[in-house]
Design a protein that fits this description.
The chain is mostly helical. The protein has 2 domains: 152 residues; 94 residues, no CATH class. Helices cover 75% and strands 0% of the residues. It is built from 8 helices and no strands.
């Protein structure tokens, strides 16, 4: 069992998480009223937010070696709240004006994605928790966008692969040990992630013709698939080289 986080760290984290959760609840209630969403909408959104909050709090003491939660993680919490509100729309009926709001929220999440990492480096508060928190938020964000694109008939069911690829990669790592090795930093990986997010946002945007959205989503999926294949090949080759080095002559 992981040790309890320092009281000041826990307090700092809760000061960031609780207001964000409250704000998400208020915004969710307003969306229900404005767009006539089902009562379950707010429940779904808050479950997603609470799941992320618990995950963060559990990992604080082991993966965040600072006494303050940090402004970068606060930004990621805000991103997580918006992603949770988007996730709540899964299974909901579409109302006039809702696709435009979804697009605006998705663009906000994407823009903030470039802020939290920059703030962590600037304040010298880079941590394993912050990096993983950012990555998991991105993964859920892409999954939610992919599901919404399918739900709104912007692309076929194949678009769900965009969100599933990362989880399939993790699952494969449970079987193939070589895939559990750490990957080196890669600008290619970051660029492709941006391409994938932009492609899904464009697919959801109400101003993009429905005849074009499948092609846009497909471009993002192809780029992401290729990026994963490059990483898989590198990891497997590196694992083979490591075994060859350790094997007795």
């Amino acid at each position: 069992m992981a040790p309890a986080p320092h009281p000041s760290l826990l307090r700092s984290a809760l000061i960031s998480i609780l207001p964000a959760g409250l704000m998400a609840g208020v915004i969710g209630a307003l969306l229900m009223y404005r767009f006539g969403l089902d009562a379950a909408y707010l429940e779904k959104a808050m479950v997603v937010f609470l799941a992320g909050a618990v995950w963060v709090l559990v990992g604080l003491s082991k993966h965040h070696p600072f006494e303050s939660f940090g402004a970068a993680n606060q930004v990621t919490v805000a991103r997580g709240a918006l992603v949770a509100l988007l996730a709540g729309l899964i299974g909901e009926r579409t109302a006039v004006g809702l696709p435009a709001l979804v697009t605006a929220a998705a663009v906000t999440v994407a823009v903030l994605d470039g802020v939290d990492g920059w703030m962590a480096r600037r304040q010298r508060m880079v941590s394993d928790l912050g990096a993983r928190f950012d990555m998991e938020t991105d993964a859920v964000f892409i999954m939610v966008l992919a599901v919404l694109a399918w739900q709104l008939d912007k692309a076929g069911a194949w678009v769900l692969v965009s969100g599933l690829l990362r989880y399939l990669f993790v699952a494969a790592g449970l079987v193939v040990s070589g895939l559990r090795r750490a990957l080196p930093p890669s600008m290619r990986r970051k660029f492709i992630a941006v391409v994938q997010v932009v492609a899904l946002i464009l697919a959801l945007a109400p101003f993009v013709p429905a005849t074009v959205t499948p092609a846009v989503a497909a471009i993002g999926l192809c780029a992401l698939t290729l990026s994963f294949l490059v990483d898989v090949v590198w990891l497997l080759q590196n694992a083979v080289r490591s075994r060859a080095t350790l094997s007795p002559r």
